[in-house]
Amino acid sequence: MQRMEQARIAAAACALAVIAGCGGDDGGAGSGTGTVQIFVEPEDTIPEGLEPGTGEENISDGWKVTYDRFLVTIGNVRAARSDAQETLSDPSVFVLDLKNAPATRYVIAEFEGVSAVRWDRFGFDLPNAREGVKTLSPTTEDDVAFMVENGYSVFFEGSIEKEDGESCPPGGECVPAKEVRFSWGLSAGTSFDDCATEDELPGFSVPTGGTIAVKPTIHGDHWFFNNITAGVELTKRYAQYIADCDLDGDGETTIEELEQVKVADVFGQEYNLAGALGEIETAYDYVVAQARTLGDFQGDGECPKREMLP
Fold first, then answer.
1. pLDDT band at residue 126, thresholds of 50, 70 and 90?
2. What is the pLDDT of residues 235-280, one digit of tens each?
3. Residues 6+ apart with CB under 8 A from 80
4. Under 8 Å CB-to-CB from 141, ≥6 apart: which residues?
5. Where are the domains of the chain?
6. What mean pLDDT do residues 274-303 have?
7. How far is CA 125 from CA 76, 93, 275, 303, 305, in A?
8. Which is nearest to 122 in space by CA: 300, 296, 310, 309?
């Protein structure tokens, strides 16, 4: 804990007093240069799933979540400085398999000869897939074709499991449901800007003669949140609505079923769905709204400026 606190103090000092040499001279000229690498990183919830429990990152209503597949469209990275006209940009867009992301993660852009100062504005897109998107191994060309054909920004499939689970569809009787599967593709293209670390440091600082790893981070738990986050993720996680939306009781909740269920029928008073991009009238709208919050920064940092993409 002491080392973590010291690291936070040091990071804050870099942001406030680059004179000390943490990121170079903010004047730009003669300050030296460094390299910026953009990594795409999946949150642990994607490869590892989520466990039931009372912890702040557990599923509070007892369901276990497992992902079998998780694809995302990501790119168009950009950075700028508020104190200068310098900008960085790479319009490349990729389809990436986050369930099977390599240990080294995916490097989707690299900028060399970058002024060694703080770049306080950073953003990226999770667009709907279009012809011309790229990919990186182990993502397959079939994954790319699938995302492009459907115009998805994100696709994921998996299951929720609970030994004494029940499905309680609106207006119907509860029935046993130990496992409910889902396979959802969403065209929820969104841009993410003004990204800052969990400690609220905007953007990133380039070291003189060194390399900074900048990591757009994709989370896998937002469609379990009981609110629409735009900052620190102060939320609880619930999965019961997925079971309740299995209207035909076949053990799988489909997009078509989500579209039929009104918000008030499955989301109770424990939910606060204000602040979404777009109206939330159905369970499907809720999932799309949460997909528009997936883009985080350097782990648990946030990108609060979000806009819909066509």
1. very high
2. 899 999 999 999 999 999 999 999 999 999 999 999 998 889 889 9
3. 86, 87, 88, 119, 121
4. 135
5. 31-308
6. 94
7. 6, 8, 20, 11, 11
8. 296
